[in-house]
Design brief:
GO terms for molecular function: dihydroxy-acid dehydratase activity; iron-sulfur cluster binding; metal ion binding. Keywords: Iron, Iron-sulfur, Lyase, Metal-binding. Its EC number is 4.2.1.9. By secondary structure, this protein is α/β, with parallel strands linked by helices. It folds into 3 domains: 272 residues, no CATH class; 30 residues, no CATH class; 152 residues, Glucose Oxidase, domain 1 (3-Layer(bba) Sandwich). It is 34% helix and 12% strand. The strands form 4 sheets. The protein has a 6-stranded mixed β-sheet. Strands 2-1-3-4 form a 4-stranded parallel β-sheet, sandwiched between helices. The chain has a two-stranded antiparallel ribbon with strand order 5-6. Bound molecules: FE2/S2 (inorganic) cluster and magnesium ion.
Amino acid sequence: MTDRKKTYEELRSARWMAPDDFRSFGHRSRIMQMGYAPEDWEGRPVIAILNTWSDIQPCHAHFKDRVEWVKRGILQEGGLPIELPTLSLSENFVKPTTMLYRNMLAMETEELLRSHPVDGAVLMGGCDKTTPGLVMGAVSMGLPFIFLPAGPMLRGNYAGQVLGSGTDSFKYWDERRAGTITKEEWQGVEGGIARSYGHCMTMGTASTMTAIAEALGLTLPGASSIPAADSNHQRMAAACGRRAVEMVWEDLTPDRILTEAAVTNAVTVAMATGCSTNAIIHLIAMARRAGIPLELDDLDRIGRATPVIANVRPTGKGYLMEDFFYAGGLRALMKNLAEKLDTSALTVSGRTLGEGIETAKVFNDDVIRPLDNPVYHEGSLAVLRGNLAPDGAVIKPAACAPEYRVHAGPALVADSYDELKAIINDEDHPMTPDTVLVLRNAGPQGGPGMPEWGMIPMPKALLKKGYRDMVRMSDARMSGTSYGACILHVAPEAYVGGPLALLRNGDIVELDVPNRTLNMRVSDQEIAARRAAWQPPEPRYGRGYGVMFSKHIMQANEGCDFDFLLTEAGPKVPEPAI
Ligand code: FES
Ligand code: MG
């Protein structure tokens, strides 16, 4: 039985619906226009369902139906469901990159909730940026909410091979470019790699971010691992609806859930899953919206103390999210990790994280490893600093060949993606496996939007000789399903004059992952001389959203939020006048 801390008159929606005045007459007559009767709203919390469905969002294709299950749960518990469609941010189709629009979704989420007569929310997301976008906005608004993860799609399958999203596309693409598979085989991979609705089923950005949402306490226990096509997902959706109504009565607002302990738990879980490099940016952005000043160094520190125990591609070798679910899912992983978590953290369920994982079990300890038999001995992400990245850069050491973790080699620099393409397609390029291939002007402002160009494709000149990895460096991001010796998120970015802008062909780049350093072997005097000669590039935009984006976007180490959206940017936004 829900502990009612609020009366109906105290609910936010009652300000719109209850008063005996002219404005409320307008609201009531207009909701009656849609066929509702007073019994539908009187005494009931109104729950917004923010649905990131669209006709071109394959990861959320089931949300058109799944939302009906959420509504059913809300009605069962005595609430009134209101579906509000939002930007759907389809990772594959939205160009130049969904990252350009994550903050737009966050703004939309916050303002939709603020401007409508709603008391709480269910957020439906899962494809990469949708999770942080929805969470950031809802945290800033502060209404009770619950996150409904889309769930991973089924394993890919082609010619008896299990295929993983992204990861295997990159692998087979390298083989196609090396000429070792036929066009027909390639088409077979195309039809088999994504064969149900749901988000990418590797431990890419989507699976990482929904796991983070669960570890933060923002989903029902176990919700993030349920495959989209499993009927448990419908039941979970209805349960989200019921629980959202209860949360409104309990006044379970996000500030009670998103504490420092919850954020630390989420970082720990992210590291143990072998998380996507994108998670770093989103974790920082989400934590800061909750007023918790998470820094890159916190992530590195927690990473060093947390082994990767999810044996899921791309960091792990064999398995995919469907296997992870059958092996016990995130609850089981957190159970193995419990000694490193603050299990007293509160979750949207109204119970603690510890209570949520109490009965969890591991059913396959090759998929979900014990702490003493990890996939990788420390967390999958490392933060590098040095004269090339004074504000930090990241690398996924577990996903790169061990011989590249300490490396020195000459830079080969591309100033744009077109320049890069010419280099990687030149079969006779005189580069060597020691070369450090660099792409710059691909950061938050330069990209613009920091596109996922950071897993620079292996150049044909090296593929031809049998090489499948080399050190690559950029101020871009890379897909969470990527792998290789890729240094990413170099900050500050080249486009705003970060030292990466000053690097020249042939300069020796020194990478030392164990010592967390990234330097160019160039003297301070020479760097100063190059800086004095550096000319800032033309602005990317002259009008439109891009102008606002370029003016307010922060660097990768700060989470790429807009400066004016930070909690400390100004006083709390007032409730709208009615
Ligand atoms: Fe949507 Fe990968 S494309 S999660
Ligand atoms: Mg992605």
